[in-house]
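Task card 7
Instruction: Convert sequence to structure tokens.
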Amino acid sequence: MSEPSDDVTNEIRDLLARGQKLQAVKFYKASQETSLLEAKNAVEAIEAELKASTPDSPLVSSKTGCAGAIVLLILPVTLAAAYLVS
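Output:
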């Protein structure tokens, strides 16, 4: 897997700053053509760097929503079920 371009990384940072982590994962996955897990891990690494570099910034949300986690947990199960049914 190659490193994302500066434009991709900047877009991820902007999405994270707006609290749109799920959109950031989707964007990374599409732009880098990676798996969902790889995209999630990469976005979380960028998020950790962002939080470390600007810990007091109001743009970095410290709250985490459970909706994104639920989607990330349900999606593989749904895909597996659809595969088994077909």
